[in-house]
Amino acid sequence: MADETPKAELMIEIINNNLSVDAVKEKIRQLETEYGENYILDYDLEKSGIEIKPQNEWDEEYYEKVKTKGILGIASKQYFLYFAELNQYIQAQRQNKLTEQKKKRQKLVIVVIAIILICMITLILLFNSGAESKATSASEFQMSSVIINDYFTIRGE
Questions:
Q1: Could you give the residue ranges of the DSSP H alpha helices within the chain?
Q2: In which domain, by residue range, is 56 found?
Q3: Considering the domain boundaries, does residue 11 fall inside one?
């Protein structure tokens, strides 16, 4: 009986997204050279219970179903190639989601910084206008004192 470890290792490499479809083809060629031409059989995926879906219907749930089939022992050439393509697609989708989330966080940080700056500017303006208002009050008081003194000086008192 042939050693199944290389097939399991191939599956793990695909899951870890270390192999592209072309790399899987090359790995299969290497395994067939090392273990014989029929080491990885070439049989129809649908006969092994995998529902083939078009790429626009691939999602996480479908990915997990196909991955589980491989973990349970489906190890045909078609399976490895199909799963590698599916895995690359799902990994790209995950990366896109992470990028979108990162962009949303960046926008949120910018909005928060803008709000903080607006609050700081508003406080500075309020503080300065309050200081100006006190200064104005003080100058008005001095002006009033001068007017009163002038009034009394003119009257001779």
A1: 5-15, 21-35, 60-71, 77-155
A2: 5-99
A3: yes
pTM listed for this prediction: 0.62
Residues 87 and 23 sit within 8 Å (Cβ to Cβ): no
Residue-wise pLDDT tens digits, 66-108: 998 888 777 788 889 999 999 999 999 999 998 888 999 999 9
Amino acid, res. 112? V
Signed CA dihedral, 10, 52, 38, 26: sign only = negative
In the chain, how many domains are there? 1
Backbone phi, psi, residue 146, to 5°: -65, -45
The pLDDT value recorded for residue 131 is 57
Per-residue pLDDT reduced to its tens digit, 50-65: 888 999 999 999 999 9
DSSP conformation class of 75? -
Domain membership of residue 46 (yes or no) is yes
